[in-house]
Amino acid sequence: MKLVVIGFGQCGCRIADEFAKLNNRAHHERHIDICPGVFAVNTDGADLSGLTTIKSDYQHRILIGTRKTGGHGVGKINELGAEVARDDADKIVDAIRSAKRFFESDGFLLVASTGGGTGSGAIPIITKFIKERYQDKPVYTIVVLPFEHEENTEERAVYNTATCLKSITGIADAVFMIDNQRYVRKDFSLRNNLAKINELITEPFYDLLSAGEEKKAKYVGAKILDAGDIIQTLTGLTAIGYGREQLSAFSLSNITSIIGKSPDFRAKSTETHKGIQAMDKAVSELSVKCNPADADRALYLLSAPHKEMNMDLVKELGEYLRSLAPQATIRNGDYPRDKGFLNITVVLSGLSDMEKVRSYYARSTAFIPEFKKRQEEVADKLRQIDEAGKDIPSLL
Ligand SMILES: Nc1nc2c(ncn2[C@@H]2O[C@H](COP(=O)(O)OP(=O)(O)OP(=O)(O)O)[C@@H](O)[C@H]2O)c(=O)[nH]1
Ligand SMILES: [Mg+2]
């Protein structure tokens, strides 16, 4: 599957940059493309210059809202983020459309944090805009939820998250929920290592997007998971997870080639065991806390050396996921790879309930009058600036 990726705000742009790296990796390692266009949109010029991989021209790193923000961000006011995105929506879409490979894509993936101002304000506006313009392509979003310490100390982060989620869930075809806090559960030092977290966030998309794009016969699965399967699966609130197990030197295929015949049942069940372990990891490391039983749709992708993928394994994995998500329509695929690893990617979609979302809504209700007042003050200030400059001749 090929997605055009567009990041908004600092966090969104950095994750989009990570997708640009993923695409380069797919190009070098697999000779395929998974992200035919990657773009960064921000109100902050300095943040745009800090990216490493997205093309550095103004058509790919798009600065918006310069008149209202002076190129220095919107300081967490996501109403202002939304407003400048609305003003510059045409500029963003024109830049994306002019990208050479735009028409090859199967859909869009828009990325932003929910806690800041620019990304959380812009992502619902541009999602809506793109959906209206390109009705035949799905528009997916990745939203990154704040760390716990931010939620506890910044009311704005909670309020921005609530307003962003409320706006985005009604319009995007699917919303991948990514909880920053989940990535520091085991290694707290990661809190200060956003680059590493961004790598972990994007990693599950590598196999998922690659599997259906493979052209070489030896990498084409017996059951291909292509763009159609992914599109059929993705809807509403969505969680993604990834589990990886190293295969021992004495794995099934090696034993077969050494002893010249199939190994006994015990060796075979070791393979299945590894598969279940990887799926268990994928489900426990889901991008957001949720109850898999609430999923309406799910998919899993098994990627491993060809000879390690026997029918038992595929069947057991399917049964395992079915036991976790009994109501879900489950799709699956296999993706043969060279290396000594077994990877499982799991997607749970159409989640009918998510405690975190309810909690953001509940906690924000109390802030509404205060933030409404602040919003009016901002609008008032913007009006005053316009008013003060109304007699000044423009150079444009
Ligand atoms: N995972 C991840 N989270 C990030 C990153 N950068 C910022 N965040 C989180 O994003 C939130 C802050 O939003 P930003 O994306 O910095 O804000 P913005 O959209 O640029 O908006 P303004 O700066 O307010 O104009 C906080 O919850 C941060 O923890 C990043 O590179 N990776
Ligand atoms: Mg910013």
Features:
single chain, 396 residues, alpha/beta, ten-stranded mixed beta sheet, binds guanosine-5'-triphosphate, binds magnesium ion
Question: Your description of this structure?
Answer:
The protein is an alpha/beta fold. It is 47% helix and 18% strand. The protein is globular, with a radius of gyration of 23 Å. The site of magnesium ion has 7 residues, from helix 1. Magnesium ion binds next to helix 1.
What's the quick description here?
This protein is 47% helix and 18% strand. Helix 6 packs parallel to helix 8. The protein is globular and about 80 Å long.
Radius of gyration: 23 Å
The percent range for strand residues is 15-25%
Outline the biggest β-sheet: 10 strands, mixed
- The succession of helices and strands, N to C, reads EHEHEHHHEHEHHEHHEHHEHEEHH
Helix coverage percent of residues?
Answer: 40-55%
Ions, cofactors, ligands: which are bound? guanosine-5'-triphosphate, magnesium ion
Distance between the termini: 43 Å
Poorly predicted sequence stretches spanning 5 or more consecutive residues: none
Strand order of the largest sheet: 3-2-1-4-5-6-7-10-8-9
Please tell me what the overall shape is. Answer: globular
- Put simply, the count of helices is 15
Strands, total number: 10
The helix-and-strand class reads: alpha/beta
Task: Return the average pLDDT rounded to an integer.
Answer: 91
